[in-house]
Design goal:
The complex is a heterodimer of chains A (about 300) and B (about 120). Chain A is α/β, with parallel strands linked by helices. Chain A is built from twelve helices and five strands. A five-stranded mixed β-sheet of chain A has the order 1-2-3-4-5, with helices on both faces. Chain A is rod-shaped and about 95 Å long. Chain A starts with a helix and ends with a helix. The C terminus of chain A is likely disordered. Chain B is α/β, with parallel strands linked by helices. Chain B contains four helices and five strands, in the order ββαβαβαβα. In chain B, a hairpin with a 2-residue loop joins β1 and β2. Chain B starts with 7 loop residues before the first strand and ends in a 9-residue tail after the last helix. The model of chain B has no long low-confidence stretch (mean pLDDT about 85). The chains are: A alpha/beta (about 300), B alpha/beta (about 120). At the A-B interface, α8 and α9 of A face α3 of B. Chain A: Keywords: Phosphoprotein. Chain A: Pfam families: RsbRD_N, STAS. Chain A: InterPro entries: Bact_StressResp_Reg, RsbRD_N_dom, STAS_dom, STAS_dom_sf.
Chain lengths: ~300, ~120
Amino acid sequence: MSGRERAREEIVRILGEHRDQIAAAWIEAQESRLASAGAVNADELREEVDTIIAGLYEGLAATMPLDRVVTGFAPLRNAVTDFSHRWARLGVSATAIAGAIFALKDACVRVLADGIPDPELRLEATELVHRLLDGAGLLTFQTYVDSREEIIQRQNRQLLEISTPVVRLWHRVLAVPLIGTLDSARAQIVMESLLQAIQDNEAAVAIIDITGVPTVDTAVAQHLMQTVAATRLMGADCILSGIRPQIAQMIARLGIDLSEIITRSSLADALTAAIRMVGDTPAQDARDESTLLNVS
Amino acid sequence: MNSSEIPILRLGKVLLAGLSNELDDKTALRFADELSHQVSAIGAEAVVLDITKLEIIDSFAARILVEIATMARLLGARVVLAGMRYPVAITLVELGLDLPGVETALSVEHAMDKLAPPGGSRVG
């Protein structure tokens, strides 16, 4: 039997016998660290550490190779990831969570030092505990990062959903007011929802309003051109409105050719043009309105 | 001559054809061939292609559509593509094929309106 296997057996023995002692040492360390946070109470700590130690004990007692105990042994892996999730939800930082797992090393090593008289075996066992709990600490970190990543992606999706309202402005006239920076993914969604709306409403004119778009680069212009081309293919016309002076300068400076697109400076002008294009007479209405205003 | 599976209807001087779900290469070629004969035979002034049912398009079919338009123009007829679905429009634009020289309309009804503007003389 190799030294490593003997060390592993020793750890299993000590974890079995001194479980409470390790747990108590760890809780003491955590309480002093988390005293200010006050987020976790002693009972909960006790429960957490018991689950993790039980996982360690069972994982080491099983015949699994040492490298795979943390990631491959389900009860231990789940205990560690649950621990990371719960603490992250309480607002504990990633460093503190990993630190808590590393603190378990100190608690274990201290007990091991008392329990194994043979110095060589003790060194081997200490090293083994370190490797094992380093792995567990990294796993908490990974869990933390993964859950953050998931939140970011979910918010991204939500942002995409809310960012592209297609509104009906007039009989057979649609508009998309674009707000914020247009990247390829958003431009794609804008294009799809606009075209879908054209199809559903049998719209003749679509107005793309870019008042809320801070910058236009060649990629954005390309997306706009594509949308306009697709609109034309479906048999509708497209008007680009809300081009601010800076944007106009930028488009001119970049040499982007938007000559095939009908452009208007404001959404109001675009709507007037659109209403004319569908065959109604906005001029009449506008005149009526202005006379009304003059009278009052 | 083998007639294509796509029926071509005649409404006065307008030819109307509805393309089905998928336009495979052989059908497309046969259709282009038959259409050109019909346009020339009746001296059609316009061709309306209803592509409402066309869900998928590839670059070959797109090229055939452009060829049909060019051919029809040479024979003195306008071509109006009616009712393109939006996924097809997106595919074409992404392939860089924006069908130059082809007129478009939202539906066959709009295409007919386009060909016969209110107040103007009716085509056909």
